[in-house]
Amino acid sequence: MDEATLRTSPEERIIVRHHTTPEQAGEIFSRVQPRLALYSHIGRRDVDSAKLIELTRTSYSGPPEVGEDPLLRRPTSCPPI
Prior knowledge:
Layout: H1 3-8, H2 10-17, H3 22-32, E1 37-39, H4 49-56, E2 64-66
Parallel strand pairs: 1-2
């Protein structure tokens, strides 16, 4: 989905307004210099894991990872929420 569509689709506007863009996240990662930059989820429907990393790399050269099921799971020893 292109940026013009994101601006016109009410659902996508809400999603984008409440999430950091991959480029913005890359800028933050560049400043913070984490050992591993990990996305817990993808906030845009038009971006898959590969695209998310590609967009992040425009401003961050460290190792980004994208969490995907079942990678991020609640430990079985923890009580349910």
